Amino acid sequence: MRRSKRYSQAQEGLKPNLIYKVDQALNMLKERATAGFDETAEVSFNLSIKPAQVVVRGTCKLPHGTGKTVRVLAFAKGEKYTEAEEAGADYIGGEDLAEKIQNGWFEFDKVVATPDMMGIVGKLGRLLGPRGLMPSPKTGTVTKDIGVAISDLRSGMVEFRSDRYGIIHTIFGRASFTPQALRDNLLDIVKVILERRPTEGVKGKYIKKATISSTMGPGISVDIDELVNIAEENV
Predict the structure, then answer these.
(1) Mean pLDDT calculated for residue range 12-34
(2) Maximum distance among all alpha carbons in the chain?
(3) What percent of the chain has a predicted confidence (pLDDT) above 70?
């Protein structure tokens, strides 16, 4: 695969197959985020699970947020409509929003719904599901406390779900964040993933590998043992 000159320069100093300590890896991520915009800090965790049998999913409210402006769509009515409005939802409605989505409208980043609206939302599964936008009780996006869910999403809550290869991909901030802020966010994600360890279907070490990168930067392998130890010490 042909790489850009900027990407090749970002790879300089990275040693193949070398695993870096947490703080060193975070500093390297920041140093290699040289694109002309504030790159997102991303992380991938390889889990020792049987993907066909086990899915690890959840949410994590990042202490320093994501650095992104999140557009929240809420399916709600009555008192919950008012609650969603007060919490800062960008779009609120029911059948009217469902019809817009069915016609190809997707100008939003997250979707929440009250349980009584799932009859409407459920019909959108084939459209929202593949985009990772389908609300679910497991991620707290189908709830009676819709105002809390909206506030959490707007202040920096991320959702994660293991894919068919047993890998979790998520974000933990921006390259412009301080190393300490990135560290705090990353550790909180690790804590939540550890809490979601399945009771069955895990082979050996639960989290086998962690790799961080900026949007346009190369992957940097992080010492997973150190990362887990620090996360567990700060529970």
Answers:
(1) 87
(2) 58
(3) 93
DSSP 3-state of 42: strand
Q: Hey, what are 44's tokens?
A: 């991938």
User: Which residue has tokens 């989505």?
Assistant: 101
| Interior/surface letters 139-155, b for 16+ CB within 10 angstroms, e for the rest | bbbbbeebbebbbbbbe
* Token pair recorded at residue 130: 């593949």
Query: Which residues, in sequence order, are CB contacts of 104 under 8 Å at separation 6+?
Result: none
What CATH topology corresponds to 72-155? Rossmann fold (3.40.50)
Report the C-alpha gap between 57 and 208 in whole angstroms: 17
Q: What is the pLDDT of residues 97-131, one digit of tens each?
A: 999 999 999 999 999 999 999 999 999 999 999 99
E strands along 62-98, which residues? 72-75, 91-93
Helix (H) or strand (E) holding 25: helix 22-31
Which residue ranges does the chain devote to CATH 3.40.50.790?
Answer: 72-155
Q: Where in the chain is the domain with CATH 3.30.190.20?
A: 15-66+157-233
- The C-alpha torsion from 222 through 193 and 190 to 135, rounded to 10°, is 110
pLDDT at 221: 96
Out of 3.40.50.360, 3.40.50.2300, 3.40.190.10, 3.30.190.20, select the CATH number for domain 15-66+157-233: 3.30.190.20
Q: What is the pLDDT of residues 131-190, one digit of tens each?
A: 989 999 988 899 999 999 999 998 888 989 999 999 999 999 999 999 999 999 999 999
pLDDT tens digit string along 142-155? 999 999 999 999 88
